[in-house]
Structures are given as C-alpha cells and as structure tokens.
Design goal:
Organism: Stappia sediminis
Distance between the termini: 43 Å
Keywords: Membrane, Transmembrane, Transmembrane helix
Strand content: under 5%
Number of domains: 1
Shape: globular
Protein name: YeeE/YedE family protein
Oligomer: single chain
InterPro entries: DUF6691
Helix content: 55-70%
Structural class: mainly alpha
Order of helices and strands: HHHHHH
Amino acid sequence: MKILSAFAFGLIFGLGIAVSGMIDPAKVLNFFDFAGMWDPSLAFVMGGALVVTAIGYRFVLKAPHPALASSFSIPTRRDIDLRLVGGAATFGIGWGLSGFCPGGVVPALGLGRAEPWAFVAAVVAGMLVANFVESWRMRSAHPA
C-alpha cells in the first residue's frame, strides 16, 4: 500500500509540475531574469504550494499518526550549520544554472530530451561525492 500511495502522490506532483509549466527550464530561468523576460509564474506556483502545505500540515498533524506509518517523522534539529548552508547554496546554484530542481526534473525525464537526464546524472554524481566527502570526514575525525 505504501508503494502504491507513493506512486499516486508522485504522479499527482508530476502532473502539477507539468501543468504549471515548471518542467520547462526556460520558464524557471525567466523567473530569475529580472532585467529581461521576467516571468513571475514560479512565485505563484510556490505560493500555492506553500498555502496547500500550511493548511495540510494543520490537519494532518492533529492525527495520532500518519495513515501509512506508526509515527510522524518530523525533523528535530533547528540549528543552521555549514552543511545546511552549503547544501542550500549548491541546490540554488544548480537550479539557477540549469532551470531544473530535483523534484521538477523527474516529470521532465519523459520529454525525450538529454538535458533532464544530464541534470539527474549530475545530481547523482554530486550525491556520491557528498557521501564520499562525509565518510572521509567522519573517518578523519574518528580514526580507528
């Protein structure tokens, strides 16, 4: 049931991204082009998502547990550290350069273009490098 619900929610998310036009990197990049062909539609998509999420959380968190899990998995850390800032900066730079974000690129994979696949390959490579650096850092901090 969990896999089926994950598929259904992913499909709804992908359809929303496709209908809103956010699978087109030019549309996303035009949002950042204040001096040229500025397109504010990304702000409306994000604002709509924020409103739906805020309302949804108020209802969902009143339940004793999620429908398909025994408890909620809510992050407890609230500190801002170098890893958080570095990850956010990397995400923003990658999004601004490519016009793709990790969630929005998944529906774009079905367009038959090479750019979304190249972006996904770069994301996977970045994750592998980050895991390598983190494991190296942990080994250096705690030698056996």
